[in-house]
Design goal:
Rossmann fold, about 170 residues, single chain, six-stranded mixed sheet, globular, alpha/beta
C-alpha cells in the first residue's frame, strides 16, 4: 500500500477492508488502537499515514485553498489506496472507511467526492472540508452505503451545524 500500513486478515478479493484515517498530530498506528474496541475479526485494516502526521495544515473550516497543496495530496493518497484495492479485485462494497477528527474530515470529503456503494462509513467528529459545503465538489451516489457521523455536542472544534450540513450530501 502507498504510505500505508496493512494489518489483520490477508488481502483477498472477497475480504472486507477498513481504511482507518488518523487525526491531526497522530500516526497511523494510533488509530489502529481503536481496532481492539471494535468487532473487526473479518477485516483487513489499512492505515494510511499523513506526511508529518497532518493531512492538511489549517482548520477544516478554512477555505480549501488555504489547505493546499496538502489537502489535494492527502485526498490523492486515499484515492491511490482505493484504486490499488480495486486493481486487486476488491469491490467497492467491501471497502469500509473510518476516520477520526482531521482524518474523519478528510475521509468524508473523499467519500462525498467519490460517492458509490461502499461497505460503510464511520466518522468520529468530522465533516466535509471548507468554509461551506460546496456541492459542486461532490459526485455520485452512496446507493445505500451505511454512514455514521458522530460528534459530541457542543464541540469546540467541530460545530454541530457543520456536521448536519455534511449529513445532507
Amino acid at each position: 500500500m502507498i504510505n500505508s500500513q496493512l494489518s489483520g486478515s490477508a488481502l483477498t478479493p472477497d475480504q472486507k477492508l477498513l481504511i482507518m484515517i488518523h487525526g491531526r498530530g497522530e500516526a497511523a498506528s494510533d488509530i489502529l488502537s481503536l481496532a481492539s474496541e471494535l468487532y473487526l475479526l473479518d477485516f483487513t485494516l489499512i492505515e494510511p499515514q499523513a506526511v508529518s502526521n497532518s493531512w492538511y495544515p489549517k482548520s477544516f473550516l478554512s477555505p480549501r485553498i488555504n489547505n493546499e497543496p496538502n489537502l489535494s495530496a492527502s485526498l490523492l493518497q486515499i484515492q491511490d489506496v482505493v484504486d490499488e484495492l480495486k486493481r486487486e479485485g476488491v469491490a467497492s462494497a467491501q471497502i469500509f472507511f473510518l476516520g477520526f477528527s482531521q482524518g474523519a474530515c478528510l475521509m468524508l470529503d473523499f467519500a462525498a467526492s467519490n460517492a458509490e456503494r461502499f461497505g460503510g462509513i464511520v466518522a468520529f467528529t468530522g465533516r466535509v472540508i471548507g468554509q461551506s459545503v460546496d456541492h459542486r465538489l461532490y459526485h455520485g451516489a452512496f446507493k445505500g452505503t451505511p454512514i455514521v457521523i458522530a460528534s459530541s455536542y457542543p464541540n469546540q472544534h467541530v460545530p454541530v451545524n457543520r456536521v448536519r450540513e455534511t449529513t445532507k450530501l
